[in-house]
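Table S2 (text version). Query chain:
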Amino acid sequence: MKTTTAAVLCAALTAMLGMTPALGHGPHDHGSYSAGEPGDPGKPARTIEILMNEMDYTPARIEVTRGEQIRFVLRNVGKEDHEFLLATTRENLKHGELMKKFPHMEHDEPNGVRVAPNKTAEIVWKFSKRGTFEYSCLIPLHRDSGMTGHVIVK
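Corresponding structure-token output:
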């Protein structure tokens, strides 16, 4: 019941704020993301390890080619929970405002994940669109403290 209530609340807030699926919360049409599309774990991918710490990512800048599939290995080497949410800067800023109201909201999307200290998570992503996209931690104050990175898709 608790999960259903949270999902309904998240869906209602998402609809009220006019958010898009790229923002990474709630039940969405999984066919439209600003930074590309979920990858296929069964297909070859280049692996990029990203370390998450207070308050940064290493590396903070990544270059990929359009059509490339990346397996992100996200290692939280910090002492706090951190997130990795892949979208546009505008979408992450908007989503960050929602996170200020609901800081413990969990990600349930292929473009975002929360990682506990000393834990690892993976995201497989296919960059089907050219441009510059952002990954950031939307836990309140983390992004504001500089916890952002960029993917440049050529």
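Notes on Table S2: The chain has one domain: 2-153. The helical segments are 2-17, 89-101.
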